[in-house]
């Protein structure tokens, strides 16, 4: 009896072990239904939610500005500045506000842009973008410039801003652009002076007033496209006075500094008539 019971117990144990092994094999051979289900994304750990809130605010505001929603973008940038004063995006936000005003355009917005760029330069003078901000101040004034015979305020502001840029950042990659625009600004300013001087010289016959205006012009703006003509008028003005000797330096400058001018032959003749030396052309002016 006991032998039969022991045999039954052994047989039952073997059957149970076999069933367990068979079940495990079946499970390993059959793909889990969970494996076929799409993995759910935990929104609480998605990229948008794990990113810093100041970064998200900056990116969304930048996107608004990019698509022309300037007021909304600037409002969000300002919210970032007020809410996260220690954010690594603080400087970028300030510059983005300035750029937004500049891009939107119009006199009021351009004025706001100038102030915003100046603020950036004050708060972040050591950042590489400070040079760009200074140039943008100049470009904003340049945009508002009027014609030579109109108000000179914006032209003078632009000249000062470009010169400030070149003094502070002479080796910056943007320096060449600043030099080119400064040249355009000074051409406008010089043209305004030239027109006034020419008016006094020809119409009013006030040679003294003409000489004052023209002398300031040729000394301040030697690259002006009509500087040689201004020098000629100065020469003739002084030649018509008792101080004829003061005419020679102006004729000499035409020969020396503007050797390609059509006035050079006449200037040489006047120098000879005044018994003054005729200078050689400046090699830099010829090149």
How many strands, which pairing sense, and closed or not: the largest β-sheet? none
E-strand count: 0
Mean of residue pLDDT values:
86
Q: CATH superfamily assignment of one domain?
A: Tetratricopeptide repeat domain
Global outline: elongated
- Uncertain residue segments: 1-7, 9-48
Label the structural class: mainly alpha
> What's the N-to-C terminus distance?
127 Å
Task: Please trace the helix and strand order, writing H or E for each element.
Answer: HHHHHHHHHHHHHHH
Number of helices: 15
Q: CATH architecture of one domain, please?
A: Alpha Horseshoe
Helical content band? over 70%
CATH topology heading of one domain: Serine Threonine Protein Phosphatase 5, Tetratricopeptide repeat
The first-level CATH class of one domain is given as Mainly Alpha
Radius of gyration: 40 Å
- Beta-strand proportion: under 5%
Keywords: Cell outer membrane, Membrane, Signal
InterPro entries: BamD, BamD-like, TPR-like_helical_dom_sf
Protein name: Outer membrane protein assembly factor BamD
Pfam family, one: YfiO
């Amino acid at each position: 009896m006991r032998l039969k019971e022991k045999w039954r117990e052994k047989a039952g144990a073997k059957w149970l072990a076999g069933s367990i092994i068979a079940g495990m094999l079946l499970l390993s051979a059959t793909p889990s239904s969970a494996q076929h289900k799409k993995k759910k994304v935990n929104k609480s750990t998605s990229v948008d939610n794990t990113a810093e809130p100041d970064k998200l605010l900056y990116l969304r505001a930048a996107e608004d500005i990019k698509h022309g929603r300037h007021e909304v973008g600037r409002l969000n940038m300002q919210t970032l500045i007020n809410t996260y004063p220690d954010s690594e995006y603080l400087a970028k936000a300030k510059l983005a506000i300035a750029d937004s005003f500049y891009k939107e355009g119009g006199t009021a917005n351009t004025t706001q842009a100038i102030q915003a760029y100046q603020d950036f330069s004050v708060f972040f003078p050591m950042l590489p973008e400070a040079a760009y901000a200074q140039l943008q101040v100049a470009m904003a004034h340049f945009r508002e410039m009027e014609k030579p015979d109109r108000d000179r305020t914006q032209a003078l502001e632009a000249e000062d801003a470009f010169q400030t840029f070149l003094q502070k950042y002479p080796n910056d990659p943007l320096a060449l652009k600043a030099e080119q625009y400064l040249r355009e600004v000074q051409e406008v300013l010089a043209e305004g002076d030239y027109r006034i001087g020419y008016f006094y010289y020809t119409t009013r016959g006030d040679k003294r007033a003409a000489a004052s205006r023209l002398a300031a012009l040729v000394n301040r703006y030697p690259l002006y496209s009509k500087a040689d003509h201004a020098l000629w008028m100065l020469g003739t003005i002084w030649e018509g006075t008792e101080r004829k000797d003061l005419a020679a330096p102006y004729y000499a400058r035409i020969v020396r500094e503007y050797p390609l001018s059509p006035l050079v032959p006449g200037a040489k003749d006047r120098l000879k008539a005044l018994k003054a030396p005729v200078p050689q052309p400046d090699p830099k002016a010829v090149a």
